């Protein structure tokens, strides 16, 4: 190693007590911008964020004493030690990691082993499911996101050379180089099951089932299903309350496609929960509790959104989008109808006599 370690602990104020928590995770981070270890450490002198260590390929700055909590991972701060690779990005390639950060990665492994001995951690890289089960070891910021459901960070990114880091950990732990294969890629469906576990419930089907055309995989749970699309960075759970409606649109092979975001519980004007919504590739699926669910998409969805969604002029969708003989499309809502034609959308609200045209809001 050719990394020079500089102790600057005691020069920074952005840290907290660990409040009696046992250190159990050594967490790697990217900076997401240009910089050196010293320039990043200088930034912490006035910022409300910090790491225990910041390292580039020649220098490692000790910023916060590891007996204290740095401000790096929100509610996980009390039990984590955090190291940031200065000048790195989660999107960078494996080649960039090895060429520009090879010595920094090796030194990070050295520090991990050193702190593992001090705090009685397991000196090994652990999976997201193990993080969720309270195991100790090494991970990155995405491990905090996926394993604990804290935050939304995905660094160090998909190309971080975990095989190289893990081999370096073994080298420093045992005094000799040990070849270790890359750890298996985290199972994204399992990670989503941990993240959504509060409402998703226990797994019903063993393992995962491939989807038609090998487009992804699905696993079924007590209160929903988890979908993973081929090459996606995460899996997404769909609650049972929406699955019946989703099936009417042909599941992931139909017009809605795969889910693209978490479901949201919607509330009425009094703040009481009264339905669910979830975004899909082809539109959004809405279901008012006690009623069937319906998809809203395209120009009709845009017009409905402008009217105030389910709390607006037209209320919840109550029917599927229908194509008329002249090629126009229409969809029924609780308090009106929205029609699309090549000339635009028209919203109609029923009254005594002819329906009233509702002005658009742009």
Automatic annotation (TrEMBL):
SUPFAM superfamilies for this protein: N-acetylmuramoyl-L-alanine amidase-like
Superkingdom field: Bacteria
GO molecular function: N-acetylmuramoyl-L-alanine amidase activity
Gene3D superfamilies attached to this UniProt entry: Peptidoglycan recognition protein-like (3.40.80.10)
Domain called N-acetylmuramoyl-L-alanine amidase: residue spans: 12-157
Annotated coiled-coil segments of the chain: none
GO biological process terms, semicolon-separated: peptidoglycan catabolic process
Protein name: N-acetylmuramoyl-L-alanine amidase domain-containing protein
InterPro entries named in the record: Amidase/PGRP_sf, Amidase_domain, LGFP
A Pfam family annotated for this UniProt entry: LGFP
Species name: Rhodococcus opacus (strain B4)
């Amino acid at each position: 190693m050719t990394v020079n370690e500089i102790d600057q602990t005691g020069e920074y104020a952005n840290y907290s007590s660990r409040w009696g928590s046992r250190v159990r995770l050594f967490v790697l981070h990217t900076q997401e911008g240009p910089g050196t270890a010293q320039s990043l450490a200088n930034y912490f002198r006035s910022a409300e964020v910090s790491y225990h260590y910041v390292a580039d390929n020649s220098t490692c700055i000790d910023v916060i004493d590891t007996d204290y909590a740095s401000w790096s991972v929100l509610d996980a701060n009390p039990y984590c030690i955090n190291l940031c690779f200065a000048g790195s990005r989660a999107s960078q390639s494996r080649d960039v990691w090895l060429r520009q950060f090879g010595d920094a990665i090796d030194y990070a492994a050295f520090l991990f082993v050193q702190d593992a001995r001090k705090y009685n951690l397991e000196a090994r890289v652990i999976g997201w499911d193990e993080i969720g089960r309270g195991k100790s070891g090494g991970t990155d910021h995405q491990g905090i996101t996926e394993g604990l459901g804290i935050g939304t960070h995905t660094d160090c990114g998909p190309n971080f050379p975990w095989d190289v880091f893990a081999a370096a950990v073994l080298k420093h732990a045992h005094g000799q180089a040990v070849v270790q294969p890359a750890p298996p890629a985290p199972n994204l469906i399992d990670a989503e099951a941990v993240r959504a576990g509060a409402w998703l419930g226990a797994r019903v089907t063993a393992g995962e089932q491939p989807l038609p055309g090998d487009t992804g995989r699905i696993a079924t749970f007590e209160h929903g299903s988890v979908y993973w699309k081929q090459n996606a960075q995460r899996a997404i759970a769909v609650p049972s309350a929406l699955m019946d409606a989703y099936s009417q649109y042909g599941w992931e092979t139909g017009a809605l496609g795969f889910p693209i975001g978490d479901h949201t519980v919607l509330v009425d004007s009094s703040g009481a929960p009264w339905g669910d919504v979830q975004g899909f590739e082809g539109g959004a699926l809405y279901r008012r509790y006690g009623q069937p669910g319906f998809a809203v998409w395209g120009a009709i969805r845009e017009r409905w959104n402008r009217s105030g969604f389910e709390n607006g002029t037209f209320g919840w969708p109550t029917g599927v989008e229908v194509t008329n003989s002249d090629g126009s499309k229409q969809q029924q809502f609780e308090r009106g109808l929205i029609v699309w034609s090549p000339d635009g959308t028209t919203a109609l609200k029923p009254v005594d006599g002819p329906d009233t045209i509702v002005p658009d809001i742009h």
